[in-house]
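re: ur question from yesterday

yeah so i grabbed the chain u mentioned. its 609 aa long if i counted rite. heres the sequnce exactly as i have it in my notes:
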Amino acid sequence: MMEFSKLAQSVLELDRMLDQLRILAESCGVPSPEHEDWYALLKQKLIPQLSDKMFLIVAVTGGTNTGKSLIFNHLVGESFSAVDHRASGTKHPVCLVPKTIGTTSFKPILARHFESFQLIPWSNAEQPLSVTENHHLFWSEGCHVPDRLLLLDTPDVDSDREINWERARAVRHAADVLIAVLTEQKYNDAAVRKFFREASEANKPMIVLFNMFDLNNDIQHLPRWLEQFCEETGTKPLTVLVTPYNKEQAERLELPFYELQENGNFSEPVNLEKILTELHFDTIKSQTLLGALKILKDPTTGVWSYLDTVQKSSLRFAEALQTLENVGETVVDWPGLPTVLLAEEIRNWWHSGRPGWSQNVNNVYRTVGSKILFPVRKVAGFVSSRCFGVQNSLVDPLLEFDNKEHQAITEFISRLIARLEKISETENPVLRREILELVGGEHRAALFERAHTVLTSLEPVNDEFRATLRQHLTEWSQKNPKIVGWIRSLDSIATAARPMITVTFAMSGFALGAHVVSQMIGEVAVAGGVTAGGEAILYAGSENAQRSIAQLFRKIQEDYVLARSKRFYEQFYKELWHDVIDRFRIGAGVAESEIFKQCQNWTIPESVS
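ran it thru and got these structure tokens back, copy pasting raw so excuse formatting
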């Protein structure tokens, strides 16, 4: 016997998990499964039936001009549905519920079972005939509806209006029992067969009713009609009924219903309402719920198919993420800090180490000295060129530095675009779309502009670099007291030519590598503001002293380039890659999320499967 409590707990848990996964899956491009049959069954059949009081939902279904509305009116004992002899008369379903007893409210129950419909109180029989694109369900209490039945009249399953098919299918999903109304003309209609075949595949219990039956002439054909219908649709009817064509009895709602017996004869007239109320509720519920679960578990069209789609899409995002993060190393030759700026920062460090009285004197001398600096610089340029191979330039060093940096960024972006264009040739549509939004068409110029704007916003020297520079100088001076003592005895200050540093940008983060392009051992110039207030060029003595100072300056320049390029790339990453990478990372994480794994591991308890 089915253990409904275990089934309810299992299915309700699946519903909870899918609600979470559905939102998450949209981040990797998988739409909501709300239009899928299995999801409709879950929401419209399983969840309501496992949550609500036990009701049997009985739907009168069939093709055009089979007399469905007439049968429905006989079933409910009142003329709620208009009997229209035109094709596709009923456009919207009509539902009659039992008279409300106590605190029972049927509106929320109907809303859970028929969530794709707008519930409208029934007021007249013409309402369901109205033509509209909205899905309406007209409902009312019925004086003769048994306590545990919800009875529905439905649109034609073979209407010339496709929207009617959708409404009929939605009712079929929610129904526990179908009354399949057939006629000689419609029992073998292709659309009718398809509708009831899908119902059979969902284990939907059915009562087959041949309407407008000629008791004298059709009885010999009934076995063949029934056998063909059941064979074509897979139907195993709960019972088979016939009702004759009699206009007067039909108008008075007095048509008799005859049940086909095992011996091939007909019974005395039976009460259709009684047949429905005597159906074994647990058996019917078991059959319909397990039928819904069968569709839910179908590996090609059910929840597993949805999970497979989610996983594949998430893996595409992971592929796109990996491709972008490993777009390849982009190598850029980045200029070192201009000598004048480095010298000035070193002077400030050196100056801070002087005694207080010396600082005051030198502040005056440095101010005065700046006015007579030009001829001394000419001499410094000559000595630097002859002694150390350092070429003096009349070009503004800051402007030259700025131009070289922007050239480096132009080179970086050009190489980056080339790599991205290569990647965009992939078959991965997600990656292709995202890349085109970065470098395609008008986005390309914006990419260059954004990069140069980021670079321009960075000041050449910041407090972080000054702190690092002073740390290097302090540590070096502590390790080289003799050299420092010799320089300090002359109150001089060091500077060096600028090496070019090669920076490697890696998309996988801020992994920056660098090495000095110009190995300039011995390319050291020593200059300073001496007590006379001017500048003098000093040779740094021994080869060991030269090497020590050169290594220091290379380290300073390398640290400067790494820090500056990292600042640039961090800001550039934030503006360019941040949103894209985040979208890919979220999408790639769906298949690895805990909620996805929980959905994958969901099973129906063995005792109910």
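noticed a couple things. The chain has two domains: 47-296, 327-576. also Residues 47-296 form a domain with the Rossmann fold fold (CATH 3.40.50.300).
anyway ttyl
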